[in-house]
Amino acid sequence: MYNLKAREGFILYEVLREARDFASKRAPSANTFHIAECWATVLNREYRHGYAILRKRDLTNIYVLLREGPPPAEREKLTTEDAIDHYLEGHREKEIPLTW
């Protein structure tokens, strides 16, 4: 459940609802879609007026990937150590082209 009292939670709820409505226009039923991925990029700005620092947070882009069909089975939750190992393993295997 989203925290709809916060502005960011309400915006994310509206975006997901709009994505569902958009998908329902493209397919016979919106109930056949599930959210495969969803993430947001955040832009933080700081304004310095005198000694006070005002921080403003803007959501710049929200990406939603909908897939048709039933959602996959839930996987077991990762511990912190497993998540770190998964992240490092994926980045160690990367090849960066055109490097010296």
From TrEMBL:
Listed InterPro entries: Ribosomal_uL22_sf (IPR036394)
GO terms for biological process, alphabetical: translation
Gene Ontology CC terms, in alphabetical order: ribosome
Domain of life: Eukaryota
GO MF annotation list: structural constituent of ribosome
Protein name: Uncharacterized protein
